[in-house]
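Q: Joint fold for the lines below.
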Amino acid sequence: MSLLVTGSIGIDTVETPFGKRDNVVGGSAVYFAYAASFFTPVRLVGVVGPDYPIDLKVLLAAQPVDTQGLEIRPGSKSFRWHGSYVADMNNAQTVTVDLNVLAEQAPKIPASYLDSTHVFLANTHPKLQQDMRASLKHAKLVVADTMNLWIDTSRKELHDTLKVIDGLVLNDGEAKLLTGEKNMIVAARKVLGLGPKFVVIKKGEHGSLLASRIEGSEEFFVLPAFPAEKVVDPTGAGDSFAAGMMGYLATQSVLSNSVIRRAMAYGTVVASFTISDFSLDGLRATSRQQIEKKYEALKGVTGF
Amino acid sequence: MSLLVTGSIGIDTVETPFGKRDNVVGGSAVYFAYAASFFTPVRLVGVVGPDYPIDLKVLLAAQPVDTQGLEIRPGSKSFRWHGSYVADMNNAQTVTVDLNVLAEQAPKIPASYLDSTHVFLANTHPKLQQDMRASLKHAKLVVADTMNLWIDTSRKELHDTLKVIDGLVLNDGEAKLLTGEKNMIVAARKVLGLGPKFVVIKKGEHGSLLASRIEGSEEFFVLPAFPAEKVVDPTGAGDSFAAGMMGYLATQSVLSNSVIRRAMAYGTVVASFTISDFSLDGLRATSRQQIEKKYEALKGVTGF
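A: Joint structure:
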């Protein structure tokens, strides 16, 4: 099995009640790659400018992340995001955002990645997600994320994307916007009607919800978040959740509802490490062994 | 084992997106008594005026509810509440409230109730809760609810109440107000520091959280709500949750963390019947058998 991720790579400035970090590593693909690599080797496709302040190849060399697909585009500038969680830890307020290189041509998928079996299309324009999907002819499981921007501006393209992917991961606000439904059970069911065989709705501190027709009839699963006493920086939590989920799925030979349930539990655990510190620091301080320990703790704190 | 509940009995007018019901049965003690009586006989202590439009003794005769403690006070008027969930299903907007008889002298506990082993002090003035607690000398397990009003106006008395009860059940907004903490894990821990051996924080559609020092060291448990596609009327959900929990606990010979977990799962299931229809209609349409079936379904939809 081989897991490919494509998404944003950014330079983040983040403010939370616990402090501020300037120009730190961020972006959906980086969080995903680091977090998923605890489970399986990851192939990264993304693009930055020569201004990127950290050597990502060195940073990611600590983990089994293939960075052949990381393009440093001459003459371009890296994506930058400045967000604040000071007023609300559940919703980032964007102070500034500069798409820069993300608004240009998409990065190329290296030839050596074309046999990837598992693919995570992190949040980007749905047309680009479709193009990526079309290039990866050996993919057995393709899961995508999306965001309010595309639901608002590119709904038709997003609907087309939903017809060619296996699973969709999105948050509750996005699910509401996409389906017009406040009730997340009804919203999840409506997403299934748009194409994907399963959908995972992320509810932040309130956990996550699965609706699946993988095994024919519809099945639901609800999972609380890991009880966290201290959330330092929620940035990357959703990407890390998807990463733990996809990382685990890539190690499994079958895709069943019970396998997706366990995968979501791993996603929950990995996200709990991400939010315990700024940027990648929470992930960098953990290990597969600690993830397994916390997975058992999640079982312990949720079982009855 | 014998379970006593004391709390409000009201005449409710309720508006939700699914319609309006005028002058229907309501109040914390009525929801609690009906819901808990699926598990164990319940003794009801409450007071109404002669204006109460329904014969509660007849209504409750369908279930093992002892109504000797139901006082119909001549010359008084029943408690009335008019609430609307039209704007927000998670928060009732009070249109009008008339305390009437609730602002008078508390109802008396009948002599035949004085040997009660399990007691639920539904939301009322904390000084009254203390008086009730003091009268029930055989009580092995006393659990109370509270509300914003008492936290704001009678904090000292509430703190005194917390020292003489075993468990507290409250919602997330109340927990935040009581402890000054937004994080519910920290808030729950702070409540334990105020006296109770366990605290259950109800989070509505986001489920519930237990913090317990029943077995010495602190233990947490998180449980999602039952995934509901259609919430018709949330009135009484919290009381029904407490009822399912206390009803089950009253049938158990030991109080352990795992017993409280199962009790919370029963509370979750019972509340899901309550919110499926107006007033008591959801509860009146169910049975212990259906509760058991849905308990298994809750296990099924949450396990991994």
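Q: Anything notable?
A: The two ends of chain A are 34 Å apart (CA to CA). The first helix of chain A runs from residue 28 to 36.
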